[in-house]
Amino acid sequence: HLTGDIHAVTAANNLLAAQMDARIFHELTQKDGPLFDRLVPRIKGSRKFSPIQLRRLRRLGIEKTDPDSLTDEEKTKFARLNIDTNNIFWNRVVDLNDRYLRKITIGQSPTEKGFTRQTAFDISVASEIMAILALGTDVDDIKRRLASMVVALDKDGGPVTADDLGMTGALLVLLKDTFEPTLMQTLEGTPVLVHTGP
């Protein structure tokens, strides 16, 4: 398993998939006000946007930085990604070719309240995260690429990114040890550097 690059990519990829499904569930089961309050909680009487939330606001064309100054319409626009479940591009991954996972149905537990959908598993090394890890030039470049990964389309046909889901930092933390190459040796004892899945 080398230094765990494939495991880290698998974890990051599947964390993003899990967050996307959780977000879809919460948007389907909560009204606008409570959803906004969960995303921007009031702590000791005040609340503020995180840097990743401020980036989302800028992408939406909202220049305000105080959560309490947003109109109800702006709060809804910020809080709801409105992911179109028929246009989700992000699959979970596993590090083997398991043909029975090529098409699956998720959300069958009673706790998911009937919100099932079909999805699939891909092979871990085919993850876009693995490609980003292989092609990234430095940490800032990798962070930028992770943030802009399109995981789905919203109901208006617009892109939904990892940054919209608030996942860029968490993905970067899971991948931090994968930035370094792995020192190995050939059968003849020659040192060789191995990096990433592809």
What does it look like?
Strands 1-6-7 form a 3-stranded antiparallel sheet, covered by helices on one side. Strands 2-5 form a two-stranded parallel ribbon. It contains 7 helices and 9 strands. Helix 6 packs across helix 7. About 40% of the residues lie in helices and about 15% in strands. Keywords: ATP-binding, Ligase, Nucleotide-binding, One-carbon metabolism. InterPro entries: Formate_THF_ligase, P-loop_NTPase. One of its GO terms (molecular function) is ATP binding.
Identify the notable features of this structure and list them briefly:
198 residues, alpha+beta, Domain 2, N(10)-formyltetrahydrofolate synthetase, three-stranded antiparallel beta sheet, 9 strands, formate-tetrahydrofolate ligase activity, P-loop_NTPase, one-carbon metabolism
Overall, the morphology is globular
Helix content: 25-40%
Straight-line distance between termini: 14 Å
Supply the CATH architecture: 2-Layer Sandwich
Structure at a glance:
By secondary structure, the chain is α+β, with helices and mostly antiparallel strands. The protein has helices at residues 5-29, 32-39, 51-59, 72-79, 128-135, 139-147, 168-175; strands spanning 83-88, 92-94, 104-106, 117-119, 121-123, 150-154, 159-161, 182-185, 191-194.
